[in-house]
């Protein structure tokens, strides 16, 4: 009788543990699904591989540098690595660039291709702090 009761208690405890684990699993799943959805919205749809090809083919690198580090041609050319400009403003800027920067019309560079360049620029690591460069820390 006592043994039966103990077995029954163990069985119930196991069932409760399984139920708790599946509830926890469901909650975790929901959180992860929500996180995935939020990330998908934040990430631009651009293709950084095609963006890199265009950045080189269309000559952006000649003034802004291969690593998007910026330069100094006639005057300071801004760095573009890890660009913070939203993709819409980026495309608008390219359409009517000021001063030394040539404009790129949609005949030359489609919105999709411009968004790919934007994705490439966001994927660039940007400058490393001096403390992470071994040669400067000897
Ligand atoms: C002939 C040199 C030159 C070329 C080629 C060029 N740019 Fe520029 N770009 C500039 C200069 C100079 C500025 C700064 C404009 C100013 O304020 O006078 C600039 C500014 C920008 C900015 C604004 C950045 C900021 O922080 O204000 C973006 C974005 C940009 N360029 C993207 C591009 C892209 C993408 C390409 C290629 C499709 C390109 N540029 C090609 C010279 C160039």
Under CATH, the topology of the largest domain is which?
Cytochrome Bc1 Complex, Chain D, domain 2
CATH class of the largest domain: Mainly Alpha
Strand content: under 5%
How many domain regions?
Answer: 2
Mean pLDDT: 82
From N to C, what is the helix and strand string? HHHEEHH
CATH second-level architecture of the largest domain: Orthogonal Bundle
Number of strands: 2
Strand order of the largest sheet: 1-2
Shape: flat
Q: How many individual helices?
A: 5
Structural class computed from helices and strand pairing: mainly alpha
Main beta-sheet annotation: 2 strands, antiparallel
Spans where pLDDT lies below 50 across 5 or more residues: 36-40
What is the helical fraction, as a range of percent?
55-70%
Per CATH, the superfamily of the largest domain is Cytochrome c-like domain
Rg (C-alpha, Å): 27 Å
Terminal-residue CA separation: 77 Å
Task: Describe the protein in words.
With 138 residues, the protein is mainly alpha-helical. It has 2 domains: 1-42; 48-127, Orthogonal Bundle (Cytochrome Bc1 Complex, Chain D, domain 2), CATH 1.10.760. Helix content is 57%, strand content 3%. A two-stranded antiparallel sheet has the order 1-2. A hairpin with a 3-residue loop joins strand 1 (71-72) and strand 2 (76-77). Helix 2 packs across helix 5 (111-123) and helix 4 (87-95) packs across helix 5. The chain is flat. Bound molecules: heme C.
Question: What are its keywords?
Answer:
138 residues; mainly alpha; Cytochrome Bc1 Complex, Chain D, domain 2; 2 domains; two-stranded antiparallel ribbon; 2 strands; 57% helix; flat; binds heme C
């Amino acid at each position: 009788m006592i043994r039966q009761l103990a077995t029954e208690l163990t069985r119930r405890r196991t069932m409760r543990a399984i139920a708790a684990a599946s509830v926890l699993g469901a909650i975790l799943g929901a959180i992860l699904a929500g996180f995935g959805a939020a990330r998908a919205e934040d990430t631009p749809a651009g293709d950084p591989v095609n963006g890199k090809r265009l950045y080189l083919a269309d000559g952006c690198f000649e003034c802004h540098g291969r690593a998007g580090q910026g330069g100094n041609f006639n005057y300071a050319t801004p760095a573009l690595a890890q660009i913070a400009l939203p993709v819409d403003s980026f495309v608008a800027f390219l359409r009517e660039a000021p001063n030394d920067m040539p404009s790129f019309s949609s005949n030359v560079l489609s919105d999709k291709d411009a968004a790919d360049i934007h994705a490439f620029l966001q994927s660039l690591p940007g400058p490393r702090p001096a403390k992470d460069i071994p040669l400067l820390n000897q």
